[in-house]
């Protein structure tokens, strides 16, 4: 009995120790460790709720496009001009004096050729029209003919859709799409202090004098008059039909029969008669972007049968 009694406290002690270990384990397994992060509200029971609820704040932080006119102008630094508000004006002579260098005739001619040969921006047909108009102004002549030359250049530029709001070719030249074409002084006109080298006065063909040219014109006119009166024999192989597109009308090109050996100035007179132009209107002829010289034939200036010739009506 005494041994049984002595075992009883030991059993109770073991049971008590087991119970304590179970309580400790239970407490550890059920206890919640404190979190270093603040608790979040999950009232909706949806994990996306906190993200959605923060969207309005983030949207408010996104900068919205400004409607300020100055900001919009920064996006369009090269705004095309409204050509309806900048109508073209009559061309004005450009007079200037060179301050940086001395120009000779040979130098300025070479620089002009190089300028047009190196254009890589803009439309080629517009550059060609500008060059053709300038060639009319470069031709020079008597001072009383300046108005006629300016009018011719104006017609050429107008036909190409070129707008010059100031009338000065060195300031603002625009095509029909609003693109700008910049022209330096030396391209538009000669400086007033151009150095002219003395040269022998010769005709355009380089071997006949002015008096010889006048006699040649008289011979041509006499020959034309004899043909008209039927006193001269005209061979069919000597004649050709040319087509001339006149700038003052929207009709198809005018077809005129001329002699292949006729000079351009004689052909021009024939076209004036066929077009029934009244004085002071007259015609200047151009082919492939270049003004035709009056003292040469069409073939001598590169014209090919069937090609259309441009006839600019002036006056």
TrEMBL record:
Residues 240-309 form the Ubiquitin-like domain. InterPro entries: DC-UbP/UBTD2_N, DC-UbP/UBTD2_N_sf, Ubiquitin-like_dom, Ubiquitin-like_domsf, UBTD1/2. It comes from the Eukaryota. Pfam families: UBD (PF16455). Gene3D superfamilies: Phosphatidylinositol 3-kinase Catalytic Subunit, Chain A, domain 1, Ub domain-containing protein, DC-UbP/UBTD2, N-terminal domain. Residues 79-93, 201-222 have a biased composition (Basic and acidic residues). Residues 1-93, 197-222 are annotated as: Disordered. Residues 1-10, 40-75 have a biased composition (Polar residues). PANTHER family: UBIQUITIN DOMAIN CONTAINING 1 PROTEIN-RELATED (PTHR13609). This is Ubiquitin-like domain-containing protein. It comes from Rhynchosporium secalis. The lineage of its organism: Eukaryota, Fungi, Dikarya, Ascomycota, Pezizomycotina.
């Amino acid at each position: 009995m005494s041994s049984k009694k002595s075992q009883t406290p030991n059993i109770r002690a073991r049971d008590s120790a087991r119970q304590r270990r179970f309580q400790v384990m239970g407490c550890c397994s059920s206890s919640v460790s404190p979190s270093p992060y603040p608790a979040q509200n999950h009232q909706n029971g949806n994990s996306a709720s906190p993200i959605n609820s923060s969207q309005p704040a983030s949207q408010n932080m996104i900068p919205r496009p400004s409607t300020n006119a100055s900001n919009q102008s920064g996006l369009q630094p090269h705004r095309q001009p409204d050509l309806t508000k900048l109508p073209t004006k009559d061309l004005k002579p450009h007079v200037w004096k060179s301050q940086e260098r001395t120009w000779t005739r040979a130098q300025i001619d070479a620089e002009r050729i190089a300028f047009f040969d190196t254009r890589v921006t803009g439309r080629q047909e517009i550059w060609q029209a500008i060059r053709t108009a300038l060639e009319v102004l470069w031709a020079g002549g008597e001072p009383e003919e300046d108005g006629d030359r300016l009018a011719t250049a104006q017609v050429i530029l107008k036909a190409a859709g070129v707008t010059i709001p100031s009338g000065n070719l060195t300031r603002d030249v625009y095509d029909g799409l609003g693109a700008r074409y910049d022209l330096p002084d030396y391209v538009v006109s000669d400086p007033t202090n151009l150095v002219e080298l003395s040269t022998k006065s010769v005709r355009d063909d380089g071997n006949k004098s002015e008096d010889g040219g006048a006699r040649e014109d008289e011979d041509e006119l006499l020959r034309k008059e004899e043909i008209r009166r039927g006193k001269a024999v005209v061979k069919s192989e000597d004649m050709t039909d040319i087509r001339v597109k006149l700038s003052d009308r929207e009709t198809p090109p005018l077809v005129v029969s001329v002699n292949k050996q006729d000079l351009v100035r004689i052909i021009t007179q024939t076209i004036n008669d066929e077009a029934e132009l009244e004085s002071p209107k007259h015609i200047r002829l151009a082919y492939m972007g270049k003004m035709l010289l009056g003292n040469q034939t069409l073939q001598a200036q590169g014209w090919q049968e069937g090609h259309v010739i441009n006839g600019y009506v002036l006056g």
